[in-house]
Fold this protein.
Amino acid sequence: MSLFEKARRFFQASDGKEHTLGPAFQYHDAHLPTLWLLGKTGAGKSTLVQSITGNTQAEIGKGFQPCTQTSTKFGFPVVKPVLQFLDTRGLGESGYDATEDIEVCTRQGHALILVMKLGDTEQRDVLSAIRQIKSSKKIVNYLLVHTASQSVSDLHERQRLVQYNCAQVHKILGREVPSVLVDFKLPGGGVDGMEDLVHALSAMLPIISVLLKKQQCSDEEVRKFQELQTQVLWYSGVAGVSDIVPGIGLVAVPGIQWKMLRDMADSYNMNWNKAALAELLGALGAGIGVRYSMKFGTRQVVKFLPAWGQTLGAASAAVMSFCTTYAIGRVACKYMYHRNHEEDVSDEELRALFHSAFDSVKTLARQELTGSGDSADRFVQKSAVVAGSNKVDPGKRGE
Ligand SMILES: Nc1nc2c(ncn2[C@@H]2O[C@H](COP(=O)(O)OP(=O)(O)OP(=O)(O)O)[C@@H](O)[C@H]2O)c(=O)[nH]1
Ligand SMILES: [Mg+2]
């Protein structure tokens, strides 16, 4: 049997077994990279979540009454999320001892966003929370966001106030923390400083820039892909996680890729059938290694593709799975778009796109799966539990 035939059969065997993918999907969504918001009551935490995600479920306070009463996670996007915001109860609310919440959040956070209202230099509770968080050694990435920038009109005074709070945080953490100044409520509507905020968040979590910085583009095919890009990233994340967590890895990456292709086909109003799959696989060709990943899993792909293995450095199977799934998703979108329009697209073009798509997410995949901070143990530490009990625990991470 040719390799092509083996790959085709393996892919088809995944069809009809989508229920076996459920634990992988759940596990992925329960372990999303998390941006944890911390600040005094009324600082603008929920406003920040709402401004970035557009999710109006993040309730915003009116006046000085404390608003958010319990920590709430907001997946972004809502469907097939690739990251989440953890909006917490405001510090400094009378009768609220945050010690326990901080302990829980420390286990859930990937990066910490400290929110302070400009001009509010009384940050005792926040500073003491930062001390506690620092001593846990679980959070590496910090960002300080000052809100209500326009409430202080003098530019020098603005800078002085920002520097004062930054210095307080610096003193505790022993290093400088990036800071941005925003105003979510300009008198005439709109937001000031949003670009800086997105830039700073993207530096902590590159996937944010994919979600929020859509490029203007005149190419209809690319525009259509941009609409589906987050879905492709979600499947790529699931494929990556599946490779790390032994109990889940058995369902294998090909099943996830197959499900993604079917979803893509639905979006293009295409019938995803054997002939279409055969054509796509044929176009990509043996040299690209996709078939190997489908048949053998990505661990073996690294062996087959020494050049990529080297490029990725200590490339883990998970990163390979992420990148391969993304590249297949990208190529499939182009293929489907042109089939829909009854246009030809050359095999060379599809192969070149596969390579460039693969390369374009290498850094992102590494950071998501094995990268900075505690994100590596995010999945790995939990794997023993999942492998042992075969049960997904959606509420906790990395304990
Ligand atoms: N002018 C101005 N008002 C803001 C800004 N950000 C938030 N606010 C207002 O501040 C108030 C409190 O905002 P929230 O987002 O609810 O604050 P929070 O930090 O979530 O507060 P708790 O849920 O009580 O902890 C609301 O009235 C917001 O409209 C800002 O950048 N500029
Ligand atoms: Mg709130």
